[in-house]
Design goal:
elongated; five-stranded mixed beta sheet; 44 helices; mainly alpha
Length: 996
């Protein structure tokens, strides 16, 4: 024993050999079970070489204690120290897998399975595994034999005798032998069923691809045929009983545990379909009903058990359909849906630990390889492999993937699969999560050869390989497309024009020839511009393909690049500002309006790289900028041109923010509240239109009167303008009011006011590159027949004597927007008693409003329009909601201050708060109003011109779907949801407005 205060030499050696609890290890070494070998130096060296020396020693003591007698224990221990291959294999397994240590403790003689070291033992195949399972005559015996074989695979794996691909292949071969053995047991249990049918087991997924994990569902499909003279229905029932029994033999938990679940859900119709089908039934299903993902799954189909001839017939019949899948009508939208990472079902706290489904995980590599196989395998049989790594090598050899990219991806995939294997091997549980405990990470790191600082090194290597996958999995699709139109290094293989076109079509490009032409123009040459664009384009092409119109995105990028490509800040912006390139891709491919605005002044692209660039400017800020620009300009036309230029830039800012908020980016999710998007757009457009009107007013006054107009003048916003609810296609509804200055003749003042209005309208509609601002004054007293401008006294006289109820209703949304704000405020004071009449509306007024609404519904709906999809006048659309809310305002605004607002949503919320409308009905009306507003905005964004109903063009309709948050291929759901939401709103409106 060591002297007090001093550690024993054994304690010190244990620390040096990697033990984390040397005191416990000393006690274990002193255990009687290890008396024969405790002082043998080779034992400590071998334990120290294992992934977890503490676990290996504990498990070794258990195994030694479990030997049935002293003679067996002495034989075991003497062999352990004498035979290095056994020592390395056994202690390697014991230091990596607690589950296999448990198996050895229950079956202590199974260590002999690691003793043989023949050539066939180094690289066994299905025949060797079948031999190892041959003696199993029931479920428990099969489980024990399976674990014994698994022990040998794990031993070769942890000792480095096999690499990760060979290990995965051995696991698949063991699964094949196990399925055959299980089918043999099922047949022995029901010989009468076996005598009625042929049954083939087709491996799918990782088993079919010869790349199985240690713990994984084994995916299968069953195909059966009746033997001669047997009724087909009877034979299929017999085959189903055999298949079900096979699944139970493998999947059920007994005293010896379970093997793995057998999953047959990849079969036609999934769990709702019959477990076993005839070959002709399989063929008929795949010809008529199968989806793209089902053909993708068939890439790995491989007959493994049962009737081998029937299995080969199955593969021969279905294989041609796999390679024709890329020509199917829905291939592109299916691919676009499948390309999006499936992380929604991963708990947020686990995304960063997910090896399989997380960003930069195994699924990214596997999906990318499989998609490229589907696209190019129809014309190149060398790609017909079920193995991910073999297919990746074939893709590189054929020039479909860059060799350097393929090599990096191969290395990353091998590391991630090996890490997955080691995680699962510990407890033999199905998991793809990297553990969080330091002890687990230490064991994993050491098992992968990271012996310095295993935890730190493991995290670094894992993140590096995950980053490679994230970076390359998109580049994998698009880099070869650039190589197809650019010069290559000697020895590199390029995509043929046909293969490049096939790939572009598969990724959603409708005009692959045109796309290749754009790529060549953007990436050819030796300039700095071409070099940077060659780096950017693989990523941009992926973002374009994620939209409804990839061709438009690529064309828009070429136009912007042609306009700005020689500007140093532009290329630097896209290269260095991470969000700028993705934001640009989203904006260019979302429709016509935003790209049109950008291409009129491409320098506005700088907005996309500014962290605050997408934040709307306030009305005060904009008015200050516009008035300053007007003050610097030489002449009224130049002044308003400057104001309209600011408006165009702000329109682009607003559309870009709306698109990016609707689509989301890789770093920030889409806005979850559509009402917030509508409100932001409405407020931003109102602010910039108000500022533009203020600029036009200043320019018109200054050109003829200098600093001061002979009359005070105000612009009152009406309709959506006054309510701050403008859409992209909305005109600016206004009233003009003036008041003669002291000492100015009323006629002179009126003439001046009319001249100002005429000049403002002319200036704002001059044909220029900037979009015009259309002013609509038709809501003025007497409509188009009345004077364009009135004095405040004239308004007062008119409203006192002649005002009609519709005019009072229109005034609900009146709000001062430009000019003399004090005069505007007095106008509001004048009209408040009209729009919020004391004691509310009389019955005659309510009847008149209802009559006007009914007349509008019958007379103003465009001929041929679908009333269930018209956003303004259709069932449950904007008009229904707004008239319902406005009736409440006119009836109760005199008593409820919250209702005195020009904004529909605010008034609706106030009505609910005042108890005038129940919660559910208020929510129904609000949802319908927001949706209809979003549709109108979306139509303008997508088509570049205003519209009140969904577009009929398929690609435009798809773009609308993406803008509204629907995945590709769900246009029907979008239209159904719109009809359902507005139908409910119409029911509320009829009850609340018409009193039905």
């Amino acid at each position: 024993m060591a002297a007090p205060g001093r550690r024993s030499s054994t304690f010190t050696r244990l620390i040096r050999h990697g033990f984390t609890d040397p005191a416990a290890a000393e006690r274990l070494l002193d255990d009687d079970a290890l008396a024969l070998v405790r002082h043998d130096p080779v034992l400590l060296d071998a334990l120290g070489a294992s992934a977890d020396p503490d676990l290996a020693l504990r498990s070794l003591v258990r195994l030694a204690e479990a030997q049935p007698g002293d003679d067996e224990r002495q034989e075991f221990l003497r062999t352990l120290v004498a035979a290095k291959p056994l020592r390395d294999r056994l202690l390697g397994v014991l230091g990596t897998s607690e589950a296999l240590a448990d198996h050895l403790a229950r079956h202590p003689s199974d260590w002999h399975a690691l003793l043989t070291y023949e050539a066939t033992d180094l690289h066994p195949g299905v025949a060797e595994f079948e031999h190892g399972l041959a003696a199993a005559d029931d479920q428990d015996a099969l489980r024990v034999a399976y674990r014994r074989c698994l022990l040998t695979i794990a031993a070769r794996d942890v000792c480095g005798t096999t690499d990760v691909a060979e290990t995965a292949a051995e696991l698949a071969d063991l699964a094949t032998a196990t399925l055959r053995a299980a089918l043999g047991l099922a047949r022995s249990a029901a010989p009468e069923d076996a005598a009625m049918c042929r049954l083939a087991v087709i491996a799918m997924g990782k088993c079919g691809g010869h790349e199985l994990n240690y713990v994984s569902d084994v995916d299968v499909i069953f195909v059966g045929e009746a033997l001669d003279g047997v009724d087909e229905a009877q034979a299929m029932r017999a085959a189903t009983r055999l298949a079900s029994h096979l699944m139970r033999i493998c999947s059920e938990t007994t005293v010896e545990g379970t093997i793995w679940p057998v999953d047959a859900n990849l079969r036609p119709e999934g769990r709702n379909g019959p477990l076993v089908r005839t070959l002709s039934s399989h063929v008929a299903y795949y010809q008529r009903w199968a989806k793209t993902w089902e053909f993708q799954a068939l890439l790995k189909a491989r007959p493994v058990a049962g009737d081998p001839a029937l299995g080969e017939e199955y593969v021969a019949a279905l294989s041609p359909m796999v390679w024709q899948a890329a020509e199917r009508e829905n291939f592109v939208p299916d691919v676009q849906k499948m390309r999006r990472r499936v992380v929604d079902n991963i708990p947020p706290g686990q995304v960063d630990r997910e090896l399989k489904l997380g960003p930069g995980g195994l699924r990214d590599v596997e999906f990318a390889v499989q998609l490229l196989q589907l696209v190019h395998g129809r014309s190149d049989a060398s790609l017909h492999s079920g193995s991910t790594l073999e297919a990746l090598q074939a893709l590189a050899a054929g020039g479909y993937v860059g060799r350097a990219d393929a090599a990096q991806l191969d290395e990353a995939y091998r590391f991630l699969r090996q890490l997955e294997h080691r995680i699962q091997l510990y407890r033999l549980r199905r998991t793809h999560l990297v553990p969080e405990e330091e002890a687990d990470l230490r064991r994993l790191g050491r098992s992968l050869g990271l012996r310095g600082e295993p935890v730190t090194e493991l995290q670094q290597v894992w993140r590096r390989h995950g980053g490679v996958v994230r970076r390359l999995h998109e580049k994998l699709f698009y880099r070869p497309l650039l190589d197809a139109v650019a010069g290559l290094a000697p020895g590199e293989t390029r995509l043929s024009p046909r293969a490049a076109g096939q790939r572009l079509q598969a990724l959603g490009y409708a005009d692959p020839v045109g796309a290749l032409r754009h790529l060549e123009a953007l990436s050819s040459g030796v300039t700095r511009k071409a070099a940077i664009q060659r780096t950017l384009l693989p990523v941009l092409l992926g973002w374009f393909a994620d939209s409804a119109d990839p061709d438009a995105g690529l064309l828009g990028f070429r136009k912007v690049s042609d306009a700005l490509g020689k500007t140093p800040w532009y290329l630097r912006l896209l290269r260095d500002e991470g969000a700028a390139a993705e934001n640009l891709a989203r904006v260019l491919s979302a429709g016509r309006l935003a790209p049109d605005l950008l291409l009129r002044a491409p320098e506005a692209v700088a907005i996309l790289g500014d962290p605050l660039g997408l934040t709307p400017r306030t009305r005060e800020h904009l008015e200050q900028e516009v008035l300053a620009a007007v003050g610097r300009a030489n002449g009224a036309e130049a002044a308003v041109a400057a104001a309209r230029g600011v408006r165009r830039r702000e329109l682009f800012r607003t559309t870009a923010a709306d698109i990016i908020g609707s689509y989301g980016t890789e770093d920030s999710p889409a806005e979850s509240d559509p009402g917030a998007l509508v409100d932001r757009v409405g407020c931003a457009l109102t602010a910039l239109n108000a500022a533009t009107l203020a600029g036009a007013l200043r320019a018109a006054v200054r050109a003829q009167w200098g600093d001061e107009l002979p009359t005070r003048f105000a612009v009152i916003g009406m309709g959506r303008f006054g309510g701050q609810e403008l859409g992209y296609g909305s005109d600016a509804d206004v009233l003009f009011v003036h008041e003669p200055r002291e000492g100015v003749d009323e006629q002179e003042a009126a003439q001046a006011a009319n001249k100002v209005v005429t000049e403002m309208r002319r200036l704002l509609q001059l044909p220029t590159a900037d979009p015009p601002l259309m002013i609509d004054a038709d809501l003025r007293p007497e409509g188009k027949s009345g004077p364009m401008v009135r004095s405040l006294k004239s308004y007062e006289a008119y409203y006192r004597r002649w005002s009609l109820v519709w005019e009072s209703q229109a005034l609900l949304r009146a709000e001062p927007m430009a000019g003399d704000l004090e005069l505007g405020g007095r106008f509001i004071e004048l009209i408040d008693p009209l729009r919020y009449p004391a004691e509310g509306l009389g019955e005659d007024a309510v009847r008149e409003i209802r009559r006007l609404k009914a007349r509008m519904e019958s007379e103003r709906m465009p001929r041929g329009a679908d009333p269930t999809l018209h956003t303004k006048l259709g069932r449950g659309g904007l008009s229904d909601v707004e008239w319902t809310v406005q009736l409440l305002q006119m009836q109760h605004g005199w008593a409820e201050p919250g209702l005195r607002t020009p904004r529909t949503r605010d008034a609706l919320a106030a009505a609910h708060a005042a108890g005038l409308i129940p919660t559910e009905e208020a929510q129904i009306l609000d949802e319908a109003w927001v949706l209809a507003s979003r549709v109108r905005n979306g139509v303008m964004l997508v088509r570049g011109r205003a519209g009140d109903t969904f577009p009929s063009d398929g690609r435009e309709l798809a773009a609308m779907g993406r803008y509204l948050g629907y995945e590709t291929g769900h246009v029907g759901d979008m239209l159904d949801d719109y009809r359902r939401i507005t139908r409910r709103a119409r029911a509320v409106m009829e009850d609340r407005f018409y009193g039905a």
